[in-house]
Amino acid sequence: MYLALRELQHQKLRSLLIGGIVALIAFMVFMLTGLTRGLSRDSASLLLDTPAQSFVTIKEAGGVFNRSFLTPEQVEALQNDNDGAAALAQTFVSFSRGDKQLSGVLLGVDARGLLAPEPSEGQGLRAGGAVLDESLREDGVQVGDVLTLKPSGDKLRVVGFTRSARLSHQPGVYVSLARWHHLNPRMRGAVNAVALAAAPEQVKLGTDLSLTDRAQTLQVLPGYKEEQGSLTMIQVFLVAVAAFVLAVFFYVMTLQKTAQFGLLKAIGASTGTLAGSVVAQMLLLTLLAVTAAAAVTLGMVQLLPAGMPFHLTPGNVAAASGLLLAVAALASLLSVRRVARVDPLIALGAG
């Protein structure tokens, strides 16, 4: 550690330049992590934060809600066999507030059931009316407003807002199940899914029905798997680039110091001491760069537009930082190998 600190202090400009490059890479990793998490929540926060552990759909739907139609008899059987089973009905709608046209997903749930939204402002479904995802406040919607569904002209009075109610990048509009069926008479009492708080292995299931847990339901949500897969691959390639850049930079630095390593070995320094110094220098420089990048990223979050799907927690930053430090440790092995092969006589002769 002593040698690592002395060299960083002596080679300030070089250390600053390399640290700056590492910080830029870390910044991109943090931003992509925030965008990935943000898009995930924008697409499926309703499923990510729901207390439900399992979802029942018809077998042919493969777990996709909008392809599933459960009859009232099937729903009743599930509720009789499983405590707390809650029906969920959904349909995508367009509605207007004054002269402003908006869209969302109309969700029919039991006002006293497992899926009933917890109001963050105003009242819940028990007050009648609709509870909206709070992102609609950015479009000017307020408690007490009356929304007009298109093209039917049906009216919904906003009684409250809730958090984490987005599905397929659309804000949720909760209404009671009876109200939902009144607005969708062609469904004839059918619903799209039944949510259960019990784990899949504890659920009693009838014939012609399919059971998926929360993770499986997310994976079959239209577009979710493809969107997350693309962003994850970008992150993987970025981390791979970070590993390559770190390995090459520090290997070149090690080659430039071959004579110095030879001299230190000649006066008694062990290979382990020199290798430890190289690894410590790399990790310390990476740690400082990652810390600076994390601070800049968390500051940048405050400047992002309110509508941008970005979600980054200290836990996400810590996980990404740990990954970058692990990558730096692995990248340092190339330099360690070079240090171990330095012959004092040859290195001093070359010097």
Dominant shape: elongated
**Multimeric organization:** single chain
**Total helix count?**
10
| Total domains | 2
Strand content of the residues, in percent?
Answer: 15-25%
* Class by SSE composition: alpha+beta
Strand order of the largest sheet: 2-3-9-5-7-6
Strand element count: 11
Integer average pLDDT: 86
From the alpha carbons, calculate the radius of gyration and give it in angstroms. 29 Å
The main pleated sheet reads as: 6 strands, mixed, barrel
Percent of residues in helices comes to 40-55%
InterPro entries: ABC-4/HrtB_transporter (IPR051125), ABC3_permease_C (IPR003838)
Domain ABC3 transporter permease C-terminal: 234-344
Membrane topology: Multi-pass membrane protein
Pfam families: FtsX
